[in-house]
Known about the structure:
- Helices cover 40% and strands 18% of the residues.
- It contains twelve helices and 14 strands.
- It has a five-stranded mixed sheet. A five-stranded antiparallel sheet has the order 5-8-3-2-9. A two-stranded parallel ribbon has the order 6-7.
- A hairpin with a 4-residue loop joins strand 12 (302-308) and strand 13.
- The longest helix has 24 residues, at 275-298.
- 30% of the residues are buried.
Amino acid sequence: MTSFLDLVQMPKFREYTMTRLSGGSKNLYYGFSSTFPILFRYRSLSTYAIDDIINEQVTATSIGEFNDLFDGAIHRYGNDTEQEAAAEKKWTELEKLRIEARLPVEILTQDYYVSLYKNHFKKDSRLKFRLLDYLGTYVCCFSSKADSTLMWSHYANSNKGICIAYDFNKWEQGNLQRNLLFPVTYSDTPIDVSDLLEDEQQRLWEYPLETAVLCAALNKASVWSYENEWRLLLVLASSLENTQRLPMKVFVKPSAIYFGNHFLKPCFYYDFKNSIERENCEKNIKNIDRLLDYMIQNQVPAYVMTPNVGSYTLKSMSIESQKLQGFIYKYFCDFMAQSMQYYTTIHDYLMNYIDGDYI
């Protein structure tokens, strides 16, 4: 394969792949853009997530680790009928060559040859399905929405995590990463790339396999459309041993950080006698404090997500990072965890504090 980093810089490759994705997903509005919406990354409030923020990096994950079984899958020869048809086609091609060469009929038997190739296509189907994983494909996922109740539940530790806003328009025009950031397109069936996979002589297009790989990486089932996903994508295609995660410098500070409605809950323990649980809670308090230190120093706005009573929607409430840190110091003196029996009370205090009421 031609280097992925080289290919994604080529206007003709981008244009051709974009056209395939738009037509294959029947999304006429789909396209690659030189400008980006504000993008949001949902995370748990973990040490790793905070390290990423402070170090101006994001961590991409191997596509084979994703929760969607079909994520990045290439669909080829998916059932017995397709495998049989492909094997019969191979036999027809070979039989034509035999006749042209005037070889005896007995040199090959149709049943044996078709059976052989059918088994080959079955194995090839499994290989193609996970080809992107074998190639070392790494993805960092973003959303164009910060108030998705499903995203807060699935990717931000059940509303106990954070959502980080990034403005990647701050990248300079010549920045390579501008060409690594793509929107996802959704469809009811996988985009058909069969013609690209068969184009071994490059009669259809100069980069058939590479285009098929990028199409597979940027196409997901319609059931995931609520994610409004964008992907920072890297295909290593090297013989190096794959790693589960890959840190990537982005050199962009968050434009805002949104705290989940229950971001304080991991600071409360259920069992006082469980020293490990309490230590984890105190570690979580220190992580929040470390994040707030960074936000204060870099003037990153803070918001807390709260439910819109009377609807199934969320709203963001602004709070100064310094005031939020002061609240943490008041109710978690010396970073000591609290008993879960006090959680609701302290959470209500926080909501009042955000509303501007005195504690």
